[in-house]
Amino acid sequence: MAYIWMLFSALSFATMGALAHALREEASWEVIALARAAVVLTLSSSIAWAFGIRLPIWGPWQLWVRSIAGSVSMMFVFFSLTRLPVSIVVTLMNLAPAWVAVIAWFWWPHARSKAVWVAIAVGLVGVFLIQQPQLAAGNRAVLAPLVASVLLAIVMLALHEAKTVDSRAVVLHFSVIAFATSLTVFLYSSARGPLLFTNQGTAIAMLVATGVAATLGQLFLTMAFASGPPAKVSVVGLTQVGFAMFYDVGIGGHGLSWLSALGIVLVVAPTAWLLYSERQRLVQT
What is the pTM of this model? Predict the structure, then answer.
């Protein structure tokens, strides 16, 4: 069932991205991020209350690193989702395992492998091909998901170090910090000028749906990693790119240049290889 849960997680997160992208004409990214954080906080608090889970304020420092890095990453993601096709954002976000491998090279010498750098090099070529059309058009928002992927790598490493903390407490802690971060960004941006928000039933429903999709994605993700081998489950998670491309091309009407399509392949392929290699290493040890 682990792979089924991961497929549902990938679909949920891709749906969240598609909804956020569709809302770009109805609401500013600050509004979308705040709504997403508010819905997730409400749902996670309800779950925590039902199971008697307390907010781990004095938890390990890795928990704070996870929540802060994840919250800042979320800001970059929603900023880029209102300016770029979902498939490009999702693809660049999937560079996170590659950054984890780079950090692990320096942090854990016993895990070093020269082949990792080949995968990184291929992935960076893919990033260049994806970014080139956007940068040529003057759209520097393409740099945002790249920064978010580095922050997500930090989140992954922090989660590994804080694995003794109850997963529901981790989600609750992140939800609180994410809401505080998004509210701060919202207040700062609104003080500088009015933010776009179309107060219509459809827009409000889509904002709520964005938060629900994010919550479901996190729930399915937790269930997947709890019931299956992490490396193999992570490879299945790359299907999020396929779901995002379906939303972009099949529903959103976005066309991808052949350079961007090639770039997506060059990013996803070495990432899948890195995750598969990690599975092989775990099997042998």
Answer: 0.82
